[in-house]
Amino acid sequence: MKKTILYTPRLLLRPWEVSDTEDLYRYASDPEVGPIAGWAPHKNLQESARILISILQRPETFALCLKTDGKAIGSIALHLKGDTDMTNRRDECEMGYWLGKPFWGQGIMPEAVKEMLRHAFVDCHMRRVWIGYYEGNDKSRRVQEKCGFIFHHKSENLEVKQLNEIRTGYVNSMTREDWEKLCGFDN
Q1: Could you tell me the CA-to-CA distances from 110 to 49, 148, 161, 166 in Å, in that order?
Q2: Neighbouring C-beta atoms of residue 53, cutoff 10 Å
Q3: CATH superfamily, region 6-182
């Protein structure tokens, strides 16, 4: 099976490999990374290895890497039908992402999200991409705004099972038509 690799000016988005376990643990063990996205920091290398194999090696899930060294610094994914609760349509998906703290504030995630939108609409033939963030995750909110996602709804009393918490979530989306306008295809 051919593995999809995506490129941006600074980034390489590639499938996760078992050899990425130490890099995954380095960033996913940071208590400022996972909890804002709804998951607990990784406790040890074994947990990172288990999550890498069971979650990060799913289809359309990519290690986010700088081209300079190819090491994983975060993750970005399209969650397809059956792997998301935001839609049950085959032509819609949910995007999710996280980035290691040393790389925050450098425009890396908006660059990755824009390429994933292209991949979703052009390569995967999606008609809508859903995305969300929890209240207080201003970094994720700003990425979504910068990339052109449009507010859809607010959800109160969301159960965040991994953290045993109740939160407020915000759901945004982008249609293929929205994306084409942003890219200037409607001329």
Answers
A1: 27, 10, 28, 28
A2: 12
A3: Gcn5-related N-acetyltransferase (GNAT) (3.40.630.30)
Tokens of 18: 């078992």
Take residue 186 and report the two structure tokens written for it: 């409607």
92: left (phi > 0), else alpha (psi -120 to 50), else beta? beta
Residue labelled with tokens 């999550």: 51
pTM (two decimals): 0.94
pLDDT digits (tens, 9 = 90+) for 75-127: 999 998 877 878 888 999 999 999 999 999 999 999 999 999 999 999 999 99
Element (H, E) at 34: helix 34-37
> At which residue do the structure tokens 């960033």 appear?
27
